[in-house]
Amino acid sequence: MADDDWLVVHHVPGHTPGHISLHNPTHRYALIGDAVFGRAQFDTGGVKAAAPPYTDVVAYRATIQILAELDLDLLLTCHYPVMRGEEVADFLDASRAWSDLAEGVTRRLLREAGGTLTLAEAIDRANPLLGPFAAPRELQWALLAHLDHTVTKGEAERITRDGMVAWAWRRDPTSAPNG
């Protein structure tokens, strides 16, 4: 094996905590598997089948940043055609933009809930705003990540409503224990 054929392993926990990518810096390509998902998972007919499935907003965004900094010319994923040149940057930009949109929608839904919001309610309300997706229940992963992210940021709190987990927007996020 020539020196320029080595693959560098990067920890990219965007999709799952232990996810990795394999990167060849000399030839500027990476095999990323399911690390990031653009704006949707598409079925064979090109229909938006499901939302990007990630469970940690901070890790997902960090993964996008890691991949963007690799200056890739070729990107190999599990669910998308091979991407080359500007397609790589466009895909990473779409991944970041969808996560930003999901954060905004989640915050809006919490503010407009007028009380509490369950994950099922969030999915029903968010699907037309983020998709729509043929499999809306697959929104559960990203929405759960974003709902919990609002808790971490002190914007909302996780509570129990009628035996179910729900989230409530804090009227004054500065009064939250996490800042």
Task: List the topology elements.
Elements: E1 8-11, E2 20-24, E3 29-33, E4 41-42, E5 48-50, H1 57-69, E6 74-77, E7 83-84, H2 86-112, E8 116-118, H3 119-130, H4 140-152, E9 156-161, E10 164-169
Parallel strand pairs: 3-6
Antiparallel strand pairs: 1-2, 2-3, 4-5, 6-7, 8-10, 9-10
Quick take:
The chain is an alpha+beta fold and about 180 residues long. About 35% of the residues lie in helices and about 20% in strands. The chain has four helices and ten strands.
Taken from the alpha-carbon principal axes, the silhouette is elongated
Report the average pLDDT across residues.
93
The largest sheet has its strands arranged as 1-2-3-6-7
Spans where pLDDT lies below 50 across 5 or more residues: none
* CATH architectural type: 4-Layer Sandwich
Helix content: 25-40%
Number of helices: 4
Structure notes:
This protein has 179 residues and is an alpha+beta fold. The protein has a single domain (3-175), classed as 4-Layer Sandwich (Metallo-beta-lactamase, Chain A). It is 36% helix and 22% strand. The chain has 4 helices and 10 strands. It has helices spanning 57-69, 86-112, 119-130, 140-152, and strands spanning 8-11, 20-24, 29-33, 41-42, 48-50, 74-77, 83-84, 116-118, 156-161, 164-169. The strands form 3 sheets. Strands 1-2-3-6-7 form a 5-stranded mixed sheet, covered by helices on one side. A 3-stranded antiparallel sheet has the order 8-10-9. Strand 2 and strand 3 (29-33) form a beta hairpin. It is elongated and about 60 Å long. It starts with 7 loop residues before the first strand and ends in a 10-residue tail after the last strand. The mean pLDDT is 93.
